[in-house]
Amino acid sequence: MKYLNKSFSVENVRVEYLAKKFGTPIYCYSYKKLKKNIIKFKNNFKSFNPLICFSVKSNANLNLLREIRKLGCGADVVSIGELMIALKAGISVKKIVFSGVGKTTRELDYAINKNILLINAESKSEVIEIEKIAKSKKKIVNIGIRLNPNTDAKTINQISTGKKEDKFGLTEKNFIELVKYSKNSKYINLKCLSVHIGSQIVNNLPYEKMLKVIDKIIKKSNQIFEFIDLGGGIGIVYNNKTKKLNYKKYNISIKKFLKNHNSKIIFEPGRSIIGDTGIIISKVIYIKKTKDKDFIILDCGMNDLMRPALYGSNHRIIPVIKKNSNSKKTYEFVGPICESTDKFLTSKNFQKLKEKDLIIICDVGAYGMSLSSNYNVRPKPIEILIKGSKINIIKKRQKLIDLI
Ligand SMILES: *Cc1c(COP(=O)(O)O)cnc(C)c1O
Description:
Blueprint: E1 2-4, E2 7-10, E3 13-14, H1 15-22, E4 26-30, H2 31-44, E5 51-55, H3 62-70, E6 74-77, H4 80-88, E7 96-98, H5 105-114, E8 118-121, H6 124-136, E9 141-146, H7 172-183, E10 188-194, H8 204-221, E11 227-229, H9 247-260, E12 264-267, H10 271-274, E13 278-289, E14 294-298, H11 307-311, E15 317-319, E16 328-334, E17 343-351, E18 358-361, E19 382-387, E20 390-395, H12 400-403
Parallel strand pairs: 4-19, 5-6, 5-12, 6-7, 7-8, 8-9, 9-10, 10-11, 11-12, 14-16
Antiparallel strand pairs: 1-2, 2-3, 4-13, 13-14, 13-18, 15-18, 16-17, 19-20
Pyridoxal-5'-phosphate binds at residues 55, 57-58, 76, 99, 196, 199, 231-234, 268-272, 366.
């Protein structure tokens, strides 16, 4: 993704052309970038050949999942719907893990029927429920148990999941008790210890601490785990203030850990695979001038991209057509939704815009479309995947008639 002759392009396709042809807003992804991310991720950890289960909640587009499957990944799902999409994308049940604190009986029943690789349980009640279903089917079910390692991921609070006050996983004491319980069960085969301490992690220390806690607890629990599922959470660079995780260091810590444990590593990356592959193309509807700043009112709102409203996150915004002009303006980019949190970014020196100009919101591949809604009865945008010069519509724009 770059400017070709001052016109922003995804691979060989000019974004301006897409806007003209399909209208705005558009979610647009680059296949080349996706492929590069997956190959890079694999290379970073190639010495221990992990199973990479893409986190479907970060992006549940069926066509993207098919591409991700072809590039060798499995899936981490958190609902029956995500499991169904992963299966429809052709992902092998041997590469699917099911996470989440509140799996219902129906969801567990479905997953057990499909014989997926692992159901990662997050409470004793859930293990008992799995056992009950397994017994009724005279089946032995492979499970993991999610540990809450009480590790601060040093990310924003809303996406931390590994501290003891978070709802996820089991505390050390409850984990060890549940390991014992599972050992004595005829219908449960405990194969995995899983963790996931949060998202958008760019600091190595939380991961190092997490590995130490796991090491200690495995020794205490006296159980051999065929799999250690380290979850996802690796951050990406959203703006020039974000740091980058040191993959080399993370790889070294895991290799050190594996010296004492003969387990297969599973990762559940979402954001680090898909985050920077996607952009939103949006059009300026109106410019509203005030004394201090000008509001740029876009045709894309928090219903299309929820992250800024939900977590206060900042996505870079750039113009589609770059202009050579020295006049820079202070702009607040907002959506059309009737909520004050419907704003994306304030930029202190943006090139001068006019109404109907096009802009790009960057790095929206993860938790963009998957968190979108029909709030204000607004149809969801079209999704397009670019492969070289080829334009693939991977999801049609919703029609008003579907909503009314
Ligand atoms: C959300 C989630 C992930 C993916 O997190 P990313 O930050 O997108 O890598 C992985 N595992 C579990 C259990 C999750 O809830």
